[in-house]
Amino acid sequence: MEKSSDFEFDDVQGLLRFGYGKLADTCFMLLKIADASAAKQWLSTVPVSSAIAIRPSPDTALQIAFSVQGLRVLGVDESIIDGFSDEFVHGMTRNENCSRRLGDIGRNAPRYWKWGRDTDVPHVLLLLYARKGSLDAWKATVEGEYFSQAFQLLQYLPTSDMGRTDPFGFEDGISQPAIDWSDRHDTDSHANDRYTNLLAVGEMILGYPNEYGQYTARPLIDPQKNRLAVNLPDAEDDPSRKDFGRNGTYLVLRQLEQNVPGFWQFLDKVSDSIPEKREQLAASMAGRERNGTPLIAEHIPGISPKDHGNHFTYDLDPKGNHCPVSAHVRRANPRTGDLPTAVTGTGAITLISRLVKILGFGQKPEEDLIASSRFHRLLRRGRSYGAVLAPEDAVKPNAPAAERGLQFICLVANIGRQFEFVQNAWIVNSKFGGLQEEPDPLLGNREPLINGNSTDHFNRPTPSGPMQKVCHLPRFTTVLGGGYFFMPGLRALKYISALQPNGNGGSS
Amino acid sequence: MTPQSAFMIAATVRVGKLQDLRTLLASMNKIPGHADPDNDLIPFGKLDRLHFARFVIIEAKTLQEIKEFGVKPRPWRPMLAFLGDIDGDVHTFLAELVERAESGLTKIFSHCDDFPEENQNLLEWIKMRNVNPGANYVNWIGRTVRQIHEEAALHHSLSDYLQKIVAEVGRENIRTLRQKLLSHVEMEKYKGRLVLSLPELTPSEWRTRNLLHKIGVPLILLLFSPLLLVIAPFFALWLRRRERSDPELFIRPVYAHIKALSEQEDWDVSNQYSVFGDVKPGLFRLLTFKFILLLTNWFARHIYNHGFLARIKTIHFARWVFMDNNHRIFFASNYDGSHESYMDDFINKVGWGLNLTFSNAVGYPTTRWMIKEGAQREHAFKYTQRRHQIPTEVWYKAYPGLTAVDLARNSRIRQGVEIRQSDDAEIREWLSLI
Hints:
The complex is a heterodimer of chains A (about 500) and B (about 425).
Chain A: E1 25-33, H1 36-45, E2 60-66, H2 68-73, H3 78-81, H4 86-90, H5 96-102, E3 124-130, H6 135-143, H7 147-150, E4 151-157, E5 178-179, E6 198-199, E7 220-221, E8 234-235, E9 238-243, E10 249-258, H8 260-270, H9 275-286, H10 328-332, H11 348-358, E11 379-380, E12 383-385, H12 391-394, E13 405-412, H13 416-428, E14 458-462, E15 465-470, E16 477-487, H14 490-497
Chain B: E1 4-12, H1 18-26, E2 29-31, E3 34-35, E4 50-58, E5 79-87, H2 90-109, H3 122-128, E6 135-138, H4 145-169, H5 174-190, H6 204-223, H7 225-245, H8 255-262, E7 270-278, H9 283-302, E8 315-323, E9 328-336, H10 339-358, E10 367-368, E11 372-373, H11 378-387, E12 392-397, H12 404-418, H13 424-433
Antiparallel strand pairs in B: 1-5, 2-3, 4-5, 4-12, 6-8, 7-9, 8-9, 10-11
């Protein structure tokens, strides 16, 4: 693969490289295509931002992604659609099993959603970013002449500028993988005993080797049969074919309502209204203090010491005495390596101790229960919405009740192994890491197990022995909508906008 | 100690009866694929030696894949298999089963070939169709269903009580806490609300056979080791040639198949898995497969018999069964978590073990030296294991809501009640489990 400077940033949508944090005003639009030809006209002229770094940084950005229904309406051939993953093609609400695994049951069930149910799946997702005060002008520029004819607006997803703070009041977005643009790190498991934050490009972007050293399945096109595909990039693993997926990614979107007064008032109640206790409990549920400081301090190689909030593992806190195993950030990224504890050095003894670990010997019963993190990372790009409500105000009984929450966005190359795995095995799973019937304290849906056992607990292990149990947690977060989108590379976007109405890409 | 055993009653389904059989089996379920413990046909809930059970209709949906090897597919007629993992020996269990569920079993197996109209001896008929596994894995040999239930109740009771007394005496007073917990257990036992049965005596016949197996297999291997050493280079050459030339089948399973399988999954914290396929053609492949399973079985029985199978702690029971005169292999397991995490766990933690056992089956991704690559070829592996998976019509688990890690923890809690901890650190450790 190319060196960093050679990376095809000009073909990648910018969101894969930038969070656009300086562009504080955002507008997320869910669209239905009303007129496919007009939509393609519009697509062919619209200024979608690439990942090329520009100095000074731009004042606006535009990103675009499509649901499978959107690709179909635009005329993308079924043979291409078939190359996408089942998760994308059949969607987030594809069957009840999927809903069970994602925790979308009870009050989170798709039938209560505001958007994204089987019957009203959006075709296109537009993400507009602009500096404070200039969003309206940017929106007018983006829409241009074909927009109103091409699309029917399903809804604006509200967003608001909360800086780096999430609605509950915690600093957010600290733990992010670093994409290995220059292909520096080795994905072989011998090199990955310990957690590293550096991730193969193929984990986030289609068309490149992933952490298994493999290419994730994606649509490949035979240019002999489809002349329009000639301008698409070549498939690295199959040079005779063109890669429709290359430089594209899957975008997962979920609207999560957060009951901020409910959260802080519950914590206040179980902390006997003592502010310090309340803060401590909040921090142990989140896994960080409100300013983002991790509950664990330990430096690890591979992450800059400057990045102290992202510069630790849980290796020295296996029981969760410092950061409970159930804490949200510990579940979302357990920072585990390929082997339960590191084996360093070389020579015969190292080899033997490695073998002993591979064979599963010498472990404590609660050790090694969590999968290796590098196969299950998400690049998060969400934005909050609603009015800011400081925790100090939220605890007051007359706190204003208003809808607020998170437009959760993550980018992944494999929806099943990354987003769905994390949501299922780590967030929703009440047995995560050997826990006793505790789903994520912030995101859990509190639905009981099949044997009737309740899951509305949060346990804080203590060095003295007995756990501190918090019981009867209400649901703090509710899913209001969601969907899977494909965010194409810019050449694939051109391909889509040049499609003929018959949809076969000019293979006459 | 009561050792566990496994049975698998397999019989060919009568022509034209498949749909009726499916409907009948579905009538045992409360939710898709999950048995109602009190169903009319087989009252699983009353069989107190039964850990897991399943009815699966073994169909060869991937029958054609062997053509890639230039071999004509062997015909296969759907078979009904009834599998169970039990405490104690198979014979007495089957006798008890027939006694309790004679009419239900008759109704079910009358859909199979050779089932006599006027049934003289159902028990004999069933016993004749019992198939022994090539390798069998038990998460914890000696842990009975009864023990599991008793220990779960103990944990529950202690957990509630500990919260109460922590509020009274504080969490630092660990010796007082322990004393109060122990008295609580005694009181609950006295009142009959908790029972902690003593383990039964280990059957001497089993003990002898187990010891013979434990010593015998390595002894025989040692005896044949000169021969094995001579064969080894030839074997290596042959293996690498095969690994390079065996066709790799990269076939994505159809979504409808995955959807049908997933309908039965993720209702409980555990799931079932049944998979069926062809053994790769040729005597060498078969002998290799048999040899690997012989070793697997030995390790499962004597090494990995207390809570972990290499790095995996989420499998309750698993077995490999040769069928159709060694031409096919059937694998069944009961595991914790969802399918995707089961597979990811496998690839990352024991990919080498999967490669060893399954690389001799048709459709498995290409391996290198039998342990490398294979499962690491993520898509090829995930596709092939889903493609060969078959739905389980009826599945029963005696302890819903509990994972294998839960069971191990409950046993440690019970141990702490019976054996006094020697120092404060041990007491804290014990209290932290509750």
